[in-house]
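$ fold --in a.seq
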Amino acid sequence: MTIPQEPNQRWSLDFVSDALTDGRRFRVFCVIDDFSRECLAAVADNSISGQRVARELDRIAESRGY
C-alpha cells in the first residue's frame, strides 16, 4: 500500500457506534484524510443510509476536489 504524499490522495472512512444512557443507539460516520490526519466529516445520527454517505462524500469532494 502506498503512503500518501499530500492531502486528498487517500481518505479513510469508518463507522463508530455507541449508546446513550437511556439505551438509544447512534452511529457516527467519520472521514479522515490519511496524509494530514484532518477530520473531513463526522456525521452523527440514529441511522446513516448509503445515500447519506454518498451525499456527504460528494459534499467533501466538491469543497476539496476529486
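$ fold --in b.seq
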Amino acid sequence: MRKLALVLSLVAAGPAFATGLEIEVAGEANGVIKIDLLEDVAPKHVEQIAALAAEGAYDGVVFHRVIEGFMAQTGDVQFGKIDGGDMRRAGTGGSSRADLPAEFSNVPYERGTVGMARSQNPNSANSQFFIMFAPGDFLNGQYTVVGQVTNGMDVVDAIKRGEGQNGAVVGTPDHMVKVTVTD
C-alpha cells in the first residue's frame, strides 16, 4: 500500500503527459502548426502550457508581436483574444497561474524552436511563447526552450508580420483558432 501511495504521489507531482501541441492558425496564415514539447528540458513550462491549452485558454489568442527574420509571439491569454481582448494591451498579460522559474538549457534557438516569453526577470514566464523564424543564438541560455515545430513551418512563415522595432501587428492579427494537446 505504501508503494502504491508513493507511485501515485510521484505521478501527481510529475509534468503533464503531453508530448505536443497542435495549433490551428487563421488570418494571413491558415493551417496547422505541430509542436513537439520538450518535457525533459522544461517540465514546469511544458506542464503550464499543456494545462492552458487543455483548458482552451489559448483558443482565439492573437500573434501580437511578429518580427521579420526573428520570431512570432503569442499566448497572452489575458489581453490577446481576437474577440473581446484589448489589442492595445496584448503582450502585457499572462494567465491566472503563477509565473515560472527559468528552466534554461543547452538546447539552442534554431529555426522552429519554441521559447517562453518573459519580462526582464528571468523567472517571469507565464503563458506567452514565441516561435523562431531563424536561428537566434543570442537567446541561448537566456530564455526557456519548451518545444520544436515538427510540421507547419510554412504556416509559421506566413504569419502576418508586425511593424517597427517591437513588431507590433497593425490591423487584424493572425490568431490561434484552436490549440490541442497531443500525446
